[in-house]
Predict the structure.
Amino acid sequence: MTTTQPKLIVALDVPDLARANELVEMLTPLGVWFKVGYEALFGYGDALRAKLESHDANVFLDAKLHDIPRTVEAAIHALVRPGVRILTVHAIGGNDMLVAAVDSARARATELGIDIPQIFAVTILTSIAPESLRELGLLGGPGENVMRLAALARDARCAGVVCSANEVADLKSYFGHDFAALCPGIRPGGSAHGDQKRVATPQAAIAAGADYLVVGRPIVEAADPVAAARAILAEMEGAVHAR
Ligand code: C5P
């Protein structure tokens, strides 16, 4: 039983600022967080940041950094802003890079006098099918790889990892409930999987112990994004009470 209420994070994966702004306006009243990823960050990041800050939004900045420690440290320094609650780096960047990210987030937030963003490590992308791991030279199944990379992240003092909902139960039993799980690849019953391979319903992800669910297309491409988000929130709420 986790003590904090799991959060729904809506991925603002849309091609233009006008649509992202509309989604922020529509969905902020529901209390959701927003994910800013490559598409928004590189396309119209500065303008979107102003919009999110004006709404006091909670932001998951999915920068997925992976470079030498000094470069990652500098990138984190530039990305820490008010409202940025979670920042991502790839666990496969190794211990020194992960430590540099964690230290840089703390140092920059302290300098700015704001809350320290949590660093989450991406383990194995949810678009990677088990049979593709071998092509990458990674031995074992997704579960073993996620646990190995999660141990690296935990040792570097990351707050948690990004993983598929299918790995959360094992993650929590190895590392305890305080090590957070943020899960993309969430698909309400009946919605298209797109490029995601290791998927789960909101209910299954919460039942497994996920702390954050990231949902993009099932909300941002829905005819009624507010109704789609509300339905997922209701499903999450029901699953929290049941666990
Ligand atoms: O549209 P969909 O719900 O598949 O969006 C999932 C979001 O989560 C995307 O923004 C994607 O970049 C992100 N993500 C992911 N797998 C990871 C980490 C992040 O799908 N391992």
